[in-house]
Structure formats: structure tokens, C-alpha cells
Amino acid sequence: MTSASSVVYFTAIFPYVILTVLLVRGLTLDGAGEGVVYYLKPDLSRLADIQVWIDGGTQVFFSYAVALNQIVTLGSYNKFTNNFYRDAILISCINSGTSLIGGFAVFSVLGFMAKQHNIPIEDVANAGPGLAFITYPNAVTQMPISPLWAALFFLMILLLGLDSQFAGVEAVITAMMDLFPNLMRRGNRRMFIVGVYCLVTFLVGLSMVSRGGMYIFQLFDYYSASGMVLLWSVFWEVVVIAWIFGADKFYDAIEMMIGSRINPYLHFCWKYLSPVLCMGLLLAKFIMFRPLKYNKTYVYPDWAQGFGLILALSSMVCIPVFALFKLATARGSFRQRWRKVTTPILPKDRCHPSWK
User: Fold this and answer.
1) Cα angle at 80 between 341 and 72, to 5 degrees?
2) What are the backbone dihedrals phi and psi of residue 299, each rounded to the nearest 5 degrees, phi first?
3) pTM
4) Is 71 strand, coil or helix?
5) d(CA 254, CA 263)
6) What residues does 293 pair with on adjacent strands?
7) Residue 299 near residue 293 (C-beta atoms within 8 A)
8) Nearest residue to 276 (alpha-carbon basis) of 227, 249, 238, 314
9) What gap in Å lies between CA 339 and CA 328, rounded to an integer?
10) How many CA atoms lie within 13 A of 153 on its CB side?
11) What CA dihedral angle connects 110, 111, 112 and 116, to 10 degrees?
12) Which strand (E) or helix (H) includes residue 293?
């Protein structure tokens, strides 16, 4: 095991230890029961609000790193016969379970804070990044031995950030190495590129820890790391798998890899349900577009909203532009070009008999 992999194991596992400690401490606070009840008793009337479905759908994509390429990149290092179907189910269960446990840890403390100030929990539980960086830390300072719990909480946040950074950097660098193998895989170029990328992202991050950093952070988060960008990316990922490579071929490829046929319901999801839901939520996002607000009060100025849209488009246009570029630079008639750019190049030993 290399030193880098040891660090990743630590940053991925140790936050669970801290989360468990915070959960136990939170559940022992006065008022924790009210917070847990509020957490487990949602307002079902909100399901009639399309914005709830939009936010929920994009949160699932963000949480599972479906459209951010981390899972795809890390999965590419597996052996061809690795049972990724089992791994996908396991990762999904761990991810959802972590979110559920984290909710207990957070809302138990919010229930304590609400009782301390004698105010409703809904007035304490603000949505968005302010919950993790403002509301929860404020609640921790009112707990007995507050320096200990504050240190554990921010250590957990730091380790989670490092772990996310490892996966995020690997996703970007691996894509560059695969796209330009002859140029990138020479000497210490990979290390140099990683250093430059980390430096650039560090400089961008500096703007988010200034006095107005929360406003910048939410601008980037709203326009470039969630919402329409993720829906757009996932839509095209599913279209490529189900309609260009072919859902039937993809189903056969999975059988070659893991040795068995998986649930046919997923075949229906790839081909119809997922693209329809993604495009439906994306259209609803555009039709019901709401200007970004901070803390439900501060409305970003028009120039900031415009900058945010540029951030979103800088990622979204890459998909159709690159597809048109490959189509335009191919040779032959339009039909020949289309067939060439949409036909995957596969080794003969990894082709299903039904494809011949």
C-alpha cells in the first residue's frame, strides 16, 4: 500500500469515527428528541412543489458523484471482471446511510439549539451551506466542552474536503492523461500538472474564505457544481449509453464483465426513464428559473447572475461543441461520419458474440 492510498483510507474512514462521536453527543443533549422528530417527520405537502424535485434530483447526482466523473474515473482502474454491480449497490447504500446518520447528528444539535433559545426548529435549520458553516458551529459553541466538539466537527469537515479533493483531482488529471497520452505521460509531467491544477484551484478557493466568501461559494455552487449543469451532463451520459452505444450492448457488456444478467428494470431506466426525468427536471429548471438568493434575503445583482450563467455554460457547451467538432473533422459522407464517431473501438476479446 502506497503512502497516498494510506492517506485516502484515513481521510475516508476517520470522519465516520468523528461523526459517530458527534452523533452520540448530540443525542444526549436536552432537546435532541424534538430535533430528531422534526427530521423524521417531513412536510409531505412540499412534494407538490416542483422545485423540491429539482433540488432533490440534482442533490442525488451531486452526492453520488454521477455527473462529476469521480466514480467513472476510479472505476476505470478496476479489473475488467470486477463485480462493479455489487460495488455500485454497496456505495449507494453507504452513501445514503451516511446521509441518514449525518441527519440525526445535525438535527439532534439543532433541536438542542432551538430549545436553548425557545424558538421553532424551522427557524434554526437554514438550508444551504450556512447549515454546515454557520448554524451548526453556532450550536456547537453552546454545548458543554464546546472547544472539543468544535475541533472534532471542523476536523471532520477538513478530512472530508481532502478526501473529495483527492477524487476530484484524480478525475480531472486522469481525463487529461487519457486524452493526451503521448504528451502527458512523460517523465514527471503528471506531478507537474497536478501541482498546477491544485495551485489554480487553491487560488480560486481563496476568494471563498474572504469576508464575502460565502457569497462567492454559493454562486459557484449554484451555477457550476449543481442544478442545470449536473442534469445536462447526466442526460447526455444516459443518451450515449442507451441510444448511441446501445442499451442492449451495454447490457451484454455487463454480462461479460460480471458473468450474469442484471435486473432488466435498469435497461428500461437507461433507455427511457432516466433521460426523460433528467430532461424534464432540466426544462422545469429553465422554465421556473429563480435568481440566486443568499439566506433567502440577499438577491445577487444582475452581473453576478450573468457570471454564474457563464460558469454553467462553460461546462454545458463542451458536450455539443466537442461532438460537432468530432463530426466535422471526420471523413466521408454525413452518414459515414456519424457511424465513425458513434461506433466504439473495442478489443476483439471484449466483444460479445451477439455483436458479430
Assistant:
1) 60
2) -95, 125
3) 0.81
4) helix
5) 11
6) 299
7) yes
8) 238
9) 13
10) 26
11) 100
12) strand 293-294
